[in-house]
Specification:
By secondary structure, this protein is an all-alpha fold. The chain is 58% helix and 2% strand.
Length: 195
């Protein structure tokens, strides 16, 4: 099927199953594909920012260099097959793959933020924004899947103080004192006898 062809293209040789809950194939491989595309555009637009040295903008030069390095790091972690000529790439990728997904999300988001603040423009916003979006995708994968509707319904109806006559439920007014009464006005509104 089409899904098996995509997963076969994006899978690494000798790939181990990730630590934690199993993710849907479209999220797992979609985030990897997004990372590869993001790294390509980050390197491309980082080069564009480096060429802004013509306008004597040193901060854009530094932002472009940081963006290109971030794109290179993301490309190494997402598509190590492109760097077979570098010896230690597979060792680094294997170490990163054993870590939880939220560390990869934090790494990608933290790599994407400095170029945007140093040289705000379409090139840095688009190139680093895609890396940031990849970090957000990995962060959502790290959060895990949503509970089933039965589990959420049971958690919403869970009672505390079982056996008491005044059992409290968890609702939107759970922090309000139980004996609180609604406001009522017995006299004319706007009169104040304490003045």
């Amino acid at each position: 099927s089409f899904a098996e062809k995509i997963t076969g293209l994006l899978a690494r040789p000798n790939q181990q199953e990730p630590i934690g809950p199993e993710q849907p194939w479209y999220l797992k491989y979609g985030s990897r594909l997004l990372g590869i595309v993001a790294a390509f555009f980050a390197i491309l637009f980082g080069l564009w920012n480096v060429l802004s040295i013509i306008t004597l903008s040193v901060t854009c030069l530094v932002a472009g260099i940081i963006q290109m390095v971030a794109g290179f790091v993301v490309m190494v972690l997402e598509a190590p097959c492109l760097f077979v000529c570098i010896d230690k790439v597979n060792v680094i990728v294997d170490q990163v793959d054993t870590k939880p997904l939220y560390l990869r999300a934090v790494l990608y988001c933290s790599l994407a933020i400095p170029p945007i603040f140093m040289c705000f423009g379409l090139a840095s916003l688009f190139g680093s924004g895609l890396i940031f979006a990849t970090g957000v995708a990995y962060g959502m994968m790290a959060l895990g899947t949503k509970a089933s509707s039965e589990d959420m319904r049971a958690a919403a109806q869970q009672t505390y103080g079982v056996g008491n006559a005044t059992a409290q439920t968890t609702n939107d007014r759970a922090g309000i004192v139980n004996n609180a009464q609604p406001f009522s006005f017995t006299g004319a509104v706007g009169t104040d006898s304490n003045v």
